[in-house]
Amino acid sequence: MRIVLVGPPGAGKGTQAAFLAQNLAIPHISTGDLFRANISQGTELGLKAKSYMDAGNLVPDEVTIGMAKDRMAQADAANGFLLDGFPRNVSQAEALDDALKLDGQELDAVLDLEVPEDEVVKRIAGRRICRNDSSHVFHVAYKQPQTEGVCDICGGELYQRGDDTEETVRRRLEVYHSETEPIIDHYRAQGLVVTISALGSVSEVTERAMAALRKDDAA
Q1: Confidence (pTM)
Q2: Would residue 188 show up in a list of annotated catalytic residues for this protein?
């Protein structure tokens, strides 16, 4: 299956993408991984991206699109892929459409993870990260440490990242609504959108997504 995963920040896209890709036996292709791989390997596209990033500028769509096309052309993506974080806007969605058509391919589904805005703010603004190891993540409501402000795993200080404050989260949501959300209408016009609730446990959301994709694939 060839799937695009969309949803607001805090919807759990990265977590769900990993489980879905494993269940479907297809590669999980995330924008972040694309950038890191190309920059670390010193590819032409990676060097271009780094020059924009080092200057504090946004990486142009054509660079991101080029990276995505190269990744989708690799052998492990021959039977499908799950795109996470790409396309990020309608122009990227149109470029993806064109690239797939050239290869005689098409998307099977666009999985839209739906989460109420207040829940997004609660999820992200409540996160606390360990200063010693950023993989140690806690939450003021959902995963409280035994001692407030102290990591259960290593004893490091827990803190709130600057981009996790409520004000910043709401700004990120505004960007999502203005730039990324329009791709849902773009794909809905093609009959590709499958919307599910991203509320509940990780396993519940994964099961819900798999059921929706199976139903869509059988339709």
Answers
A1: 0.87
A2: no
Which is nearest to 123 in space by CA: 213, 7, 208, 22? 7
Is 171 part of the annotated catalytic residue set? Answer: no
- Is pLDDT above 90 for 166? yes
Q: In what order do the strands lie in the sheet with 193-197?
A: 28-30, 81-84, 2-6, 109-114, 193-197
Pick the CATH number of 2-218 from 3.40.50.300, 1.20.1090.10, 1.10.10.10, 2.40.30.260: 3.40.50.300
Q: Which of 69, 88, 170, 208 is catalytic?
A: 88
For the stretch 65-119, pLDDT in tens is 999 999 999 999 999 999 999 999 999 999 999 999 988 899 999 999 999 999 9
Q: Contact, 115 vs 208, CB < 8 A?
A: no
Q: Which DSSP string corresponds to 108-160?
A: -EEEEEE--HHHHHHHHHTEEEESS-TT-EEETTTB--SBTTB-TTT-PBEE-
Query: Which amino acid does the sequence have at 118?
Result: D
Cβ atoms of 161 and 188 closer than 8 Å? no
Q: Which two tokens stand for residue 159?
A: 């803190």
Per-residue pLDDT band for 42 (boundaries 50, 70, 90) equals very high
Rounded to 10°, the helix 117-125/166-175 angle is 130
Q: 101, 131, 143, 161: which one is catalytic? A: 161
